[in-house]
Predict the 3D structure of the following.
Amino acid sequence: MATNYPTPPLLLSCFERTAKWMRRGGRENDIVISSRVRLARNLRRYEFPHRASAPDLLTIRHRTFQALHAAGESSGLTDLRLLPFEEFTGWERQSLVDRHLSSREHITEEIGRGVAAVADASLSALVNEEDHIRLQSLLPGLQLDTAYSLVDKLDDAVESFFDQRGGYAYSNVFGYLTACPTNAGTGMRASVMLHLPALEITGKIDKARNWADDNKLTLRGTFGEGSKIWGHLHQLSNQLTLGTDEVEILLDAENATRELCTMERQARLSLQGKWADETRDRVGRAYGTLRYARRISCREATDCLSYLRLGHELNWLKGLTRQRFNELIVWIRPAYLQVLHGRSISSEERDKLRMELLRPHINRVRLDSSFNGTPARTPSAAPNPETVKQEDIA
Amino acid sequence: MANVLCDVCGEQAATVFVTKIVNNETTRQRLCESCARHRATTEGWMQHLLQDSGHLDTAQTDDIMSFLEHTDAALEAFMDQDGSAEAEFELPSSTIFNFGGFPADEDLVDEMEEAEMEEDLRADDFDAVNEALEADQHQLFPHDHTLRPIPTVRCSKCSTTWDRLRQDGRVGCSHCYIVFEEQLRDVMNRVQRAAEHTGKHPRTAEKRRRRLEHLRARRDHRLEMLNRRLQEAVAAEKYEDAAKLRDKIKIVASTIVSGE
Ligand SMILES: [Zn+2]
Ligand SMILES: [Zn+2]
């Protein structure tokens, strides 16, 4: 499409550094970081993105941006940023992945891909990812209901734009048609990001994962998979999209989230009892690292921040709010650092810059007095044989 | 379905809708099969057309029904019959082709889309399209079923096969859901809660459909009323009134509520 988008500013200036989901809001905030609802929609007229021609991809993007622009005016979303990927460098695009506005597969495609989002990223659309349009709402804490109502409204507006232009790909049998048949039906993915350090430390995370699976939900790492999950951050999302409706999906996900919260809270109680020594060791080490290291990798920083957040939730330390944790786990991402500095940076230099970014925030953290000196050993806190086994989970 | 006559011969129902965009100029033609075939070869846009529909590479070597084969078969079928027979058939809904790449001009797109909307309204109902497709196949080979190629079933729009779909985990286009409905139902029954959608419907489309139904019902009701009055007029030997009523009926009956 021959449309000339204005010369792109640096990607960072398109968005508020603190996204909506990083702020206060929602419920179950001690464990639930954010809620996301995504609707996959396709246009009947075109083949799905992995098959569509370049001209079609460009037309789809252009049309979708138009639709969103039109929807924005009627839904009060005047702050819309339209980001055709061609205009951004690889690391700028990667920073969108870090901010949960895109996916790895999405940003590596050459032509016709893009993202549209409001400045606080609470509403966005991924264009020509796996599907033509994926509408997404991303909010803090547990509030899948609000997230859905936002994205549902946007969906209606986008649909009415395309109704006179071939319409959505929809059938009475399979519902909203998607590139991957496993998304057909509602085309909806409801997910929450959970902070589950206690379930990991006490070795109950596999049990939780199986429990989720039995309930037709998937629990997997937000960053990294399996035993390499970063920062104890997990994503819970629905598996079923067909033969069920939106409300049922939301309720199931919400109930499961509350159930997992209960499990995590129980585990956190045992962190203050049976697992106290182990946990204090980890929190203390994490603080030490962040306080005194000169270089730090993204993974190590994420893990350390996670322990500080846990310390905060257990009332063992002060000075690192939930919001600050949410901000920092994104700000320390490699691509984000590069975007922040407006250039490509070697990984060694990044590790240094990351520490510089973290230091002022860590300087405000105060551990409680029990971290001073060597705490007296009580018999109940004797070394636990299971402790050693837990090392590789961290 | 509404019968639009061919722009060239003005006799046959137009079943091929061609939108050509050359040097930013749009020309639209509604053609019957035979005129389309003739035009396509004489004007030399058959190649483009096949390229556009993704059939060029496979037209010779593959067992899919390319546009060329569709039209050839159509002509044969047409000639086999004695002129009066219904040779009218409709190609799968890829009967609108754009030429010269995608248009750079904004208005042009809108214009085209308006034209295409007519088509889309018709293709609105997946079941209707499905039926039309099945009907096509019968009419293409009305007598001799051995003519029919033994196919690896492919989506007529994107030529995806079931094997490829399974390997890839993805379908090629929304039409694949019609072509592979049975297989997909099986899959859905296994991996989903059920193979039937129970969630949200596209709301604008639904509203429009209801509006059309309403209009159609009103027209039919009016026709019924006029016919009744016509019968009464004839019975009462009021021939002048009857003639007037007949004219009215003609007009109302030819009112096309889009979507039919
Ligand atoms: Zn003709
Ligand atoms: Zn297809």
